[in-house]
Amino acid sequence: MKKTLLLVLMGLMTLPTMQAKSEMNENDYAGYLMVYHKDQDHGLHMAVSCDGYTWTALNDDKPVIAGDTIAEQHGIRDPHIFRGPDGGFYLSMTDLHVFGQRDGIRTTEWERDGKLYGWGNNRGLVLMKSFDLIHWTRTNIDFSKLPDQEDMKWSEVGCVWAPETVFDEETGQLMIHFTMREGKGMNKIYYVYVNNDYNALTSQPKLLAEAPEGKFNIIDSDIIRVGDTYHLFYVSHEHGATPKHAYSRNLTGPYTFDETYYDGERRGHEAPNCWKRLGSDKYVVMFDNYSIRPMNFGFVETKDFFTYHPIGYFDEANSPMKRTNFSEQKHGAVTYLTAKEIKQLKKIWDKK
């Protein structure tokens, strides 16, 4: 694995747009890849599915990449996988170990004083790129090294959580959106552009979404484009950790908040992730429910993004969603794979 230098590139410049390697459509894919982390090891896990219902973890549910080999805090959380128009896989993760003291990684509960920076404070992200899901490049981005702005003192950044990558078709650039707060302030959603090599920021971060008047936290953004509309799923802490939906004709907003979204329950949710079922007109919204024991993923389906049908949790009675060899997964994200890619991944990890 190639390790790149800690690098943040700032300033206005003319950037190359990303060119499509080949035109792929839904018919080219044969299944799905899910990435997630586990609290037990803070590493990157992967699972595959050919039908989107039954999932099998690679490497017998042991990490495919150990968090202590790639992260400044020796652990990762909130992995997200995006397949770019160049055919590359873009993997973004929170650089954070929430049990560092327990596991002997540090002597304090958090990297910095929790009284000043809050729960789970961290400074940065881990960005990785691959064309085969085996060989990766890596960059660690430290947001506290960004120059301070009028509306954000980056040297006092309290958290940089749950990054996700999308492609801005208007600018031809990759964009990362993420949860951020200053010090112990309210969590908000920010976005920033990144270069094609996925190893440097190419713009100053800007605010994407926040609660009205910043009165409560919003976290864990997920964006999917359907037709000419961008759908933003996120978690609101106005009345507990509740998943919410917003929409816009522009990737960077402004977003219209949809007060009608309801997934059937309101408790302990995070990490919404929306993906389309291949060969179907249904979209799945997958979420992590950390308030139940054992922790599990729940699922709802929609066709119109206004009405949602709950289909239960993994391995729940009457739910079509099944796991064959894993449990207690956290903060998942899904993308598509070809039949060749699924076969290659299974072959490699079965040998290991």
How would you sum up this structure, described in words?
The strands form 5 sheets. The chain has a 5-stranded mixed sheet, with no helix packed on it. Strands 21-4-3-2-22 form a 5-stranded mixed sheet. The chain has a single domain, classed as Tachylectin-2, Chain A (5 Propeller). Helix content is 5%, strand content 41%. It contains 2 helices and 22 strands. The chain has 352 residues and is mainly beta.
Brief sketch in words of this structure:
By secondary structure, the protein is mainly beta. Helices cover 5% and strands 41% of the residues.
What's the structural blueprint in terms of helices and strands?
Elements (H helix, E strand, L loop, with lengths): L1 E2 L27 E7 L6 E6 L4 E4 L18 E8 L5 E7 L18 H4 L6 E7 L6 E6 L14 E12 L4 E10 L5 E7 L11 E4 L8 E9 L2 E8 L5 E7 L7 E3 L10 E8 L6 E7 L6 E7 L6 E5 L8 E2 L6 E8 L1 H13 L1
Parallel strand pairs: 1-8, 4-21
Antiparallel strand pairs: 2-3, 2-22, 3-4, 5-6, 6-7, 7-8, 9-10, 10-11, 11-12, 13-14, 14-15, 15-16, 17-18, 18-19, 19-20
Q: Look at the structure and give the CATH class.
A: Mainly Beta
Rounded to an integer in angstroms, the radius of gyration calculated over CA atoms is 19 Å
Number of helices: 2
Through-space gap between termini: 17 Å
